[in-house]
Amino acid sequence: MINRFSKIKLFLIASTVLFNTSCEDYLDINDDPNLPTSVPAHSRLVGAITTTNGSAMWRGSREVAAVTQYASTALTTGSNRNAETWRFTASYFFWQNAYVFTMPNSVDLIVLGEKEGNPHFVGAGKTLLALNLGMLTDQYGAIVVDDYYDGNSQINLTPTFNKQEEVYQRIQQLLDEAIIAFDNPKNKTPLNFSGGDIMYQGDVDKWRRFAWSLKARYMNHLSKKSSLYDAQKIIEAAQNGFNADGMDAEFAYLEGGQQTDENPWYSWGGFTNANPVNNRYFTWSQFFVSLLQNLPVTEADYQDPRISRIMQPAPSDGEYRGLKSGLGLAGGQGGTGQFTDVEDYGQFKNSGFYTRATSPFPFITYSEVKLIEAEARLRSNDASGALAAYEEGVKANMRKLGVPAAEINAYWAAQLENGVVDHFNNLTNGLSHIMRQKYITQTLNPETWVDMRRMDYSQEIYGPYLQRPANINTVVFNANDPNQWIQAMIYETNEQNRNGDQIGDNSAQYRLLTPLWWNTPE
Q1: What is the pTM of this model?
Q2: FRET pair for 494, CA 20 to 30 Å: which of 52, 116, 158, 356?
Q3: Distance CA 472, CA 513 (A)
């Protein structure tokens, strides 16, 4: 643990130095002989992975967990409630975290790898950069790509934005280049030369499959673009992606360190209050609980064995229940006024696989890749192939969460009895299975928001439990239109003030209601 965070400290120093070398017109800094002016690529990999997780993905997940109704706050006033009721402003800082703290490390990793003749570091940098660009564009739409920091030139403070269609092209280009780099045998320094590959310990094949998996994800987002969606290419990418348990691209938190060594859903992300009602999220949502207690399509009662691995029952009576988004604890379960005591709900923090101190934070998983393949096969009328990929995706996630084989087999038997084979002969019913399983397997991942928007927040897909929050932001959203859902985020204040011509209309009324390019049917 000490070694890892010593390296992160070194990367922060080096990143600052390298970033400032392109800002000499703004800063007058004397050279310090005790500080390096550059560091090798193998010393930068740990920082690129760490900031992709902690600065970017965490910041892009925190409020989205409420938008996607994974979790609920206990309060009816205060800032914790804002995300849950869609009260977003230009103070949402994912943009700044990604552009200032995260992506410069990926860019520098690419530049250093190229200079040193280390293509595997180039591949890692391009894979992480593609992931970060993908997370950004999927929340904002148009973003800065071509005019961004390139590791050599002076920073452009008023960069030109790329349209989302262009961003998606650049993401695929970066991933193609990363795969070529990983295939290059002329690499001088192993990825884990200094212990910096904290994700794959130098396994280049897993990095390559990580890039292929992301290719499948971002191609699959284009399901509403009939001229661009290519199911066969998605299937090919998925088959070149993760193909077994233990390949997931994820950040492993550490035990016994400082608070920032712990998973943010457990501690430093707003979960340190002695009284759980004051934490950012108090408990899981009733929507999520309902998904775990009913089978798709028929809504037959069946308790998913993962429920006990993800959340805890209420201490008061041992039942699983959640809060409806926007109601708070005072509203009770479903707004009935019942179950308004803290002990009537299992807490969100430290409740299971995703919210313990050492819970890993996944970027993309084997289970997601199989479910992506299932969707692509379903859309290409390969019902049996879709069902097989779906089954493996579900079972892979169950294995990951430690569900015993007997319980996995019983769950699949219940699906078969419920008619899953027949359901996959219908696009909507098949998608209901796939998207509900993706919701479960991607718990707290911002990728879920992409799926929900692509599926138009459909109750045919997610079931009758998916409803807009109570106490919704009626300044922007029509209280009487249940089909009007949040679509994107507002650009950050700093970017709006400095580069407003590129942003255009950044009002909440426009940004929150306007679908992104990939969500506009052709």
Answers
A1: 0.93
A2: 52
A3: 13
